[in-house]
Amino acid sequence: MAVVHPTDSVSLLGAIEAAHQGLIIPVLVGPEARIREVARTARIDLSPYALVAADHAPLSAARAIDMARAGDVDALMKGALHTDELMHPVVDLEHGLRTDRRVSHAFVIETDRYPRLLFITDAAINIYPTLEDKRDIVQNAIDLARTLGVQVPRVAILSAVELVTSRIKSTIEAAALCKMADRGQIVGGVLDGPFGFDNAVSCEAAATKHIVSAVAGRADILVVPDVEAGNMLAKQLEYLAGARLAGVVLGTRVPIVLTSRADDAQARLASCAISVLMAHGKPAETP
């Protein structure tokens, strides 16, 4: 796994801890002097690990992507650089890591208040996705959930209300996504929506509103209207509900661990574990 620009203790420790757990073999890509100084301060022995020198963050990203394209690494991990510094070259049509799918992001969330993993998408990459974008976002998330052992993921398309109305665009897109699933344009999961957040995760709330659905109250995947809603929802669960988050990029040639620079080493470790499953897992074929 190419660890891109690990020039602070959190990103470097996360990668080294994942190596100690036997999850990854890290290849550290970035300014050598800065990385070694961080290692000295954190008392990390770098001697077992390869280090590829790159003077600044954009060059670190470019070199890591080149390594992935060449097959020299199986995955990437974001270090101490801005998300757009990594993702802009990743989505480059000619030199990046795109596939035929729209690139998207998913948070994998564990909380004591919910009896199963929650997947929230897209909360980091696609700002205002179109209906076609959302089709790929949903399919990417279904494939991830299946790789992590959810055989038939229940997908809730979120909005502010449960009824389809022309006044709220996301409700129309929710209905369209459900029909796309009916027509085989999205496969491997069960879709329903629009749902408010309460009806997606609470059977009691769904029953109160007389919603009859195989997804309501039992959702595995929450598809948000836009990045603002998704980012706020994920961070609220993390900071107010004590949820534990991991973050990965989907729809690329190789898995990419994409966590916040504020995330601790444990979040990076969990994200690495998910990326290992993605790199070696084989979900059912999808269109």
Give a written overview of the molecule:
With 287 residues, the protein is of the alpha/beta class. It has ten helices and eleven strands. The protein has an eleven-stranded mixed beta sheet with strand order 3-2-1-4-11-10-5-6-9-7-8, with helices on both faces. A hairpin with a 5-residue loop joins strand 10 (244-250) and strand 11. The model is unreliable at 283-287 (pLDDT under 50).
What attributes does this structure have?
287 residues, alpha/beta, eleven-stranded mixed β-sheet, 10 helices, disordered C terminus
Write the layout of secondary structure elements.
Layout: E1 2-4, H1 9-20, E2 27-30, H2 32-42, E3 50-53, H3 57-70, E4 76-78, H4 83-90, E5 104-110, E6 118-121, H5 131-147, E7 154-158, H6 169-182, E8 190-195, H7 197-201, H8 203-208, E9 221-223, H9 227-240, E10 244-250, E11 256-257, H10 265-280
Parallel strand pairs: 1-2, 1-4, 2-3, 4-11, 6-9, 7-8, 7-9
Antiparallel strand pairs: 5-6, 5-10, 10-11
Helix pairs in contact: 1-10, 3-4
Briefly, what is this?
With 287 residues, the chain is of the alpha/beta class. Helices cover 41% and strands 17% of the residues.
Helix content: 40-55%
Structural class designation: alpha/beta
Number of strands: 11
Contiguous helical run count: 10
In N-to-C order, the SSE pattern is: EHEHEHEHEEHEHEHHEHEEH
